[in-house]
Amino acid sequence: MSTELSESQDLNGLEQATDGTSRLTDICSGTVGNSMASIAEYYAGKSVLITGATGFMGKVLVEKLLRSCPEVKALYILVRPKAGQSMQQRVSDMMKCKLFDRVREDNPDFYQKIIPISSELTQPGLAISPEDVEKLSACINIVFHCAATIRFDEPLKHALQLNVIATQQLLSLAHQMHHLEAFIHISTAYANCNRKHIDEVIYPPPVEPKKLIESLEWMDDGIVRDITPRLISDRPNTYTYTKALAEYVVQQEQHRLNIGIIRPSIVGASWQEPFPGWIDNFNGPSGVFIAAGKGILRTMRANNDAVADLIPVDVVINLTLAAGWYTAVHRPKTALVYNCTTGGINPFHWGEIEHHVMSSFKRNPLEQAFRRPNANITSNYLINQYWILVSHKFPALIYDLILRLTGQKPQMMRIFNRLHKAIGLLEYFSSQDWEWNSENMSMLMSQLTPEDRKVETSGTSWSASVSSSSPTSVRPAP
């Protein structure tokens, strides 16, 4: 899941972390024990394979490695060809992103370490050529599997292909890598959202993945669509369902590969790195926040007292790289799971979002706003429906009528319908609480020297905490 907070400069004022962050910071900055190299030193000379590198988290992972581990040997990234745009062009466009400005200043030739590999997750063998398979098998030291579909309403067959089958294919490739030291899989804290208390363990899957894949192969898409609600049972969508299956698939390789699994909650804008407030999508709550800032969204159904478990993307990435280091160096006998969440240490509630986001947008209005921001969060279904009618549908009808009378194409009702659909998909997560265990996070912190744990957050190379205690960019500075 991903969220965003800012198109305006003011959201930099919402991204500050609170007390829990400063005491659990810089896990990637120093020595572990007295004889272990720093994490940055560990990645020196390593060849890294990253899936999903053109996505939100993948970009931040690439940037962090290039900036904070300047001696990393090469980053191989799987890139899906797109019609009308070559693989090289896609990577070149990504490198031009503002996200990479700090890397560009330090090393204008940083892009030479990026080696794109043509791949398609929906194809057998990930559609990687034999030559590239041989190249990857000979040099890769660490794999970061970030690629996935995060759409909540993805058809089950497609979600299964992207989140489960593609993971199986990547694991098969990993078995061919002669120098592989760690395989890090990015999951989600909501993979087991049918449970209220979630430990850092792999729970039994809702169904044996192999049997499900074999069963769905012969089924018509219409049949699969009809049986999907019964298959996913007490999970809210195909995303959480298939991510749970993917965790089980990864766990099955724990005796042959060194595996770590990262479970972030709702990933939001960067807290500090490479600069505050960076985000590149409107997924999940992201679009909702922006819609509120533009005055389109006036009501949302959520439990004001429920914890909004939002986590900055740089916190997740720092944890991911730290887990990669720990997995490779210590080689745990079983796959370690890291719940990367905030609610247990530094809870932040949906009711607080209403105040902080609205006050932020009012002080720094977004361009081309529909009307003045003024959103209300309520848990009452009838009240929410009333405000949808009064504050959403009626204004949309009037606005579209004006557009028609002036010879323009009506659009507001279509925008509101899309907004209501997005909010509906989020209601499951905004109306209840979960409790995540974070013992492995504490264990990871215990590997730091006392000096490292005292380092204050300073915006330097490894500044963002990986402790899961930092709130995302929705809380004002203390």
UniProtKB/TrEMBL annotation:
It is an enzyme of class 1 (oxidoreductase). This is Fatty acyl-CoA reductase. It catalyses: (9Z,12Z)-octadecadienoyl-CoA + 2 NADPH + 2 H(+) = (9Z,12Z)-octadecadien-1-ol + 2 NADP(+) + CoA; (9Z)-octadecenoyl-CoA + 2 NADPH + 2 H(+) = (9Z)-octadecen-1-ol + 2 NADP(+) + CoA; 18-methylnonadecanoyl-CoA + 2 NADPH + 2 H(+) = 18-methylnonadecan-1-ol + 2 NADP(+) + CoA; hexadecanoyl-CoA + 2 NADPH + 2 H(+) = hexadecan-1-ol + 2 NADP(+) + CoA. The keyword Glycoprotein does not apply. The lineage of its organism: Eukaryota, Metazoa, Chordata, Craniata, Vertebrata. Residues 392-454 form the Fatty acyl-CoA reductase C-terminal domain. Residues 50-319 form the Thioester reductase (TE) domain. It comes from Anabas testudineus (Climbing perch). Residues 457-478 have a biased composition (Low complexity).
